[in-house]
Amino acid sequence: MKFSIMYAQEGDDPNAPIGISLSDSDKTVLARSGSKVATLSGVDSVGVDSLNIGKGQYAAIDTVVQGVITKIYEFAQGRTKLSSA
User: Fold this and answer.
1) Which of 18, 49, 80, 83 has a 20 to 30 A CA-CA distance from 30?
2) What's the rounded Cα separation, in Å, for the pair 71 and 61?
3) What is the reported pTM?
4) Is residue 75 a contact partner of residue 63, using CB atoms and an 8 Å limit?
5) β-strand 68-75 against 58-65: which pairing, if any?
6) How far is Cα 57 from Cα 76, in angstroms, rounded to an integer?
7) Based on C-alpha coordinates, what's the Rg of the chain?
């Protein structure tokens, strides 16, 4: 006769932070959100090369994903006017 038991639990450990630091403005956004979802843009520049030429240009495009307006970034090769992020 063979008998075995397995117990598994998945969840966040409140005593083990995930290693991110929040700026004062991030904390303000979270505090003001209350019980609502808080979001911040993670958009960052791709920078410039040694000749001060942009490494890439992207256009911010609003699109609808599952009924929610979402901003995507499309590589904009050869475009001169780009949307702001």
Assistant:
1) 83
2) 5
3) 0.36
4) no
5) antiparallel
6) 5
7) 22
Alpha helices in 1-85 (DSSP H): 24-33
Number of domains present in the structure of the chain? 1
Q: Is residue 71 part of a domain?
A: yes
| C-beta neighbour count of 83 within 10 angstroms | 14
- Domain range for 57: 53-78
Pairwise CA distance, residues 59 & 28, whole Å: 29
Looking at this protein, which amino acid is placed at residue 47?
Answer: G
CB 72 within 8 A of CB 63: yes
3-class DSSP assignment, residue 6: coil
